[in-house]
Amino acid sequence: MARIALALGLWLALAGAAPIRLITQLSQARIEINTTFRGSEMLVFGAIQYPQGSVPDAPPDIAVVVRGPSAPVTVRQKARIAGIWVNATGVRFESVPGFYAVAATRPITQIADERTTAIYEIGIRNLQLSPASGADDGISRTFETGLIAARQKAGLFTERSDGVQITRGVLYAARIALPAAVPVGDYTAEIHLVRKGRVLASTSAPFVIDKSGFERWVYVMAQENSLAYGLAAVMAALAAGALAALVTRRRW
Amino acid sequence: MDIYLPIAEMSVNALLIILMGGAVGFLSGMFGVGGGFLTTPLLIFYGIPPAVAVASSATQITGSSVSGALAYWERGQVDLRMGGVLVAGGLVGAGLGQIVFSVLQDLGQIDVVISLIYVLFLSVIGGLMLRDALAALKAARAGQAPPARRSRHLPWVAALPWKMRFPGSGLYISPLAPLLLGAAVGILTVIMGIGGGFIMVPAMVYILGMRAQAVVGTSLFQIIFVTAATTMLHATASKSVDIVLALLLLLGGVTGAQLGVRAAQKLSPDRLRLGLAIVVLAVAGVLLIGLTLTPAEPFALFEGA
After folding, report:
1. pLDDT higher than 80, residue A230
2. Helix axes B243-264, A226-251, angle to 10 degrees
């Protein structure tokens, strides 16, 4: 009897503490850049698994963060020297994602406080771009703003406060637009479940963007067999020119 | 029709690039210039990274110079000896230019320097051409014969040692002068993505004093080799040659050039020179405005280390 009671108590305790879980799926594990690539779309979708299957009346918030490969970027401010705009002082940022998109159920500031969103790097303003040491804090802020504005203009940094739809409190889906200028590399989609300002569950799924077919072949040739690639380029140009000469001579 | 360029890493409108090549080809067929000085700025205006624009433009010029050079070759208007010396100088210059190019790329100033050099050269050359063309037109209107072109080389060229005979060019001069000229143009070929014909041709006439018949053919001969070497340098060092972009430009360029040649036969040479001078000065003006106008984007990004 005591044993049964203990087991029951343990089960109750475990069930009560059982965490909310997120199940995630991506529409594609691999996005291929071919000759006709004009950008793409990634569908991030899945289900929220509640303990004991009890769906609450008010669904929680979901934030989807998709980020591309990070690389150092030097931001230079243009300055006028003798009437001409040149690239003057620069600040180097060590880890700038080549692509960063956030989709959420509500504006990020309403989902959680600044500290929480900063820890999970949810939101463009919360990205830790690691400016090179030695730069003045205020100055690197200005350059960071410039960097973010340039990336946003190129469609590489996006934030949508209505980007995640939740259906019946259980299913969630977000469409992330990938512009034609997306860099190739390893990407991750992170999904955070937030309730009352606290992140209760997180999961992530990787995907790859890579050149394929002819594009990939040309790129790999240019990188790895650059001498042969250069020769091929010269030969192709010569052949095109000679062909044109031949055709026109016949016309005359 | 959109095409993704594998090296420039961007999607472009293929039809627009072909038309761009065609328009430049038309002008080059009409005025007998390579047109690289138009292609590179146009590609940069379109949004192609400057390094890719310069490198791919050089590749395109190799192709577009071939048909012209072949035509002059058949008429015996290529001075091989002079061309060889110019090519040798050009290869040295291309090597030097590559070093300068890399340094500027590291400093993050390549786009500014490319524009500045363009403004400088285009205004000087355009100004000189405009002056010549206007003088010739004025003389023609007054019913006089056009002023005779000086066919003697400059005094300092005559003073250089180790003189050599160049029968095709009608010259007995030191090979040092064309060697230096070739090197100077070679540097510009790498940095600006131009064939350099619009600098080389006047220099051959006014500095070296070459026989006029051999000038254009020999210049085209030199351009083929130096732009080919430039393509190789850019392909191996900065890996910025976009073969797809170059071929698209060629496709439009060779067609446009034929139309340009036909259009040119209906116009007088002096009017053509006046037209070219105006085009050259207009490009310089647009670039100068771009350099001095307050930019819409106060920051520029440079990727990588």
Report:
1. yes
2. 20
